[in-house]
Amino acid sequence: MFSRATKGTSDKLVPDMAAPPEASRKAPRAPSLISDNITIEGSVIGEGELQIDGVVRGEVRVDKVTIGETGHVEGAIFAEVVETRGRVIGQISAKQVRLHGTAYVDGDITHEQLAMESGAFFQGRSLKFQRPAAPPAISAPTLVSETEVREPSAQVG
Known about the structure:
The protein is mostly beta strands and 157 residues long. It contains 1 helix and 18 strands. 17% of the residues are buried.
């Protein structure tokens, strides 16, 4: 951000022109918290990170979800990253899923990466995301004439 002035100038700090201006940097956001004495009935949707130590009865859609040991989710979770130490009753769909040793998950997990520590409980199906294959090259349709479609007529002889 600041650099020492070059030789021949004063010892004052001068702005470093190579550093990006403060306004162009995004300030890191603090994760949102649902504490252990809170119960939410309904969907939780947003961007950023969410720490759940309380109870959510409904769908959760955020970038990253961390479910603490006292956390409990009854509903579907859709995120980029899901880490759980608590309970989830419902499906999880995320690129990265990590079940810590105290985790209890009853539902299907759709993922690219799944990690489970010893002691974690998981009942459901583990479904790996299938990246869509490149569509096959489609050739131009072949036209069939009407005479090729008709059955040959029997000749009377």
